[in-house]
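Exercise: predict the fold of this chain.
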Amino acid sequence: MTITMIIQLLIVLLALWVGSRYGSLALGAISGIGLAILVFGFGLKPGTPPTDVIYIIIAAVTCAGVLQASGGMDWMIQVAERLLRKHPDRITFLAPLTTFFLTVLVGTGHVVYTLMPIICDIALKKGIRPERPCGVASIASQVGITCSPIAAAVVAFSAISATNGFHVNNLQIIMITIPACVCGLMAAATASYRRGLDLDKDPQFQERLKDPVQYQYIYGNSATTLDKDISQDSKNAVYVFLGALGIIVLFSIVQMFGGNLLPSYDTLQVVKGGPSEVVVEGVTMTAQQLVKAGVVVAGVTEKVPKPLAMNLVIQIIMISAAALMIIFCKAKPKKAVGGAVWQSGMVAVVAIYGIAWLADTYFSSYMKEMQLMLTDLVSAYPWTIAIAFFLVSVLINSQGAVVVAMLPLAYTLNIEGWVLLGVLPSVYGYFFIPNYPSDIATVNFDRSGTTIIGKYLLNHSFMMPGLISVITSTIVAYALSYVCHSAGMF
């Protein structure tokens, strides 16, 4: 690497670090400062913002936000709470499963804030150290992002892979990630089962109980959603939402088996084996230029029918589902915009917009240099790209942004698509530094004080379950992807 490359890379990393310190919208906005320095200060050509991915996120977040406004998410939380309270002795295993599948359903981990106090309450009443279920449940709420068919990370992986010749739909992706991530979470839950001292043997906890005020704070309250009335309209909104997911999955299943239920349109493409250039009316044009111009030249370009792209299908279905919930389920749009799900989703859009544009500007400018530096390593050990994904995720609090920023680079290094699918769980690394909202909120929800950040920052309650979960999930996903690739499934 040249001195200039190193300086520019430091600018990228500094922008990400400063943005993560401020949090929220700052992560994307401060990336804009880094982008401005690279473009106006160093003269780099601006990259391309990931607009296709952003559109899908907007559609999915709008649908999930309207679902929350309808009260449908409250019903989903109630169902989860009933399951947890029915088996309180298994809270360490059931808590991460409930937060995981809630995220899988709605595409964002921010739906679990209502459930976290309930998990803590159940653990306390059963005499279980709350750190055990709370730590792994918080991890699980984020792990589920790579397992949701409407989450940004999955959508981005499918779209970017398609442009690089690896055609895999959302259903095929989650067929790998869901079993892998469940294995990782169960490994983390097993490691957490006897973690720390039992409450009756913890001297710090017992000392707190001697204070009547603290005793009342810990045991005097009970967090629950079971006393909340759920209207039929709220339940209908859940049915609409699940129906929309079912339609998306149906289209994906049909595609997997070579069928097509979607409308098709004539699309220009380059003829295989044809010339790379052709003279049209005295002007030399490449085959790709002809495609962009919509010009059909015999032997160079041709019209072929192509079905509607799945990224557009998801957008249409999600927006339509949101509209149905507004019209028939009395969901209020203003309430949706003011809800946590919609707001956090829009923050993610800004983060992905800024981070991905900044990263694409830098990497696209030095693609040849990156290939020379990394080709030998990834050629011998292609799985090592997982380490790069994880390290970038430590800086970027968005799995979707990591995929959008790093996946194009990975493909230019000639890493096979099945390998990248196998290491997809490694894009979750932002638990490493405990500054993510779900982790901070979990610490605050634990009335016992056993879920902690730690004096030395990295010795926090989420480190052990996070590392076990991600490492195990990545290994299992890599093995599953290899088996499916060998069987010719993709």
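Check your answer against the key: The CA atoms of residues 175 and 360 lie 29 Å apart.
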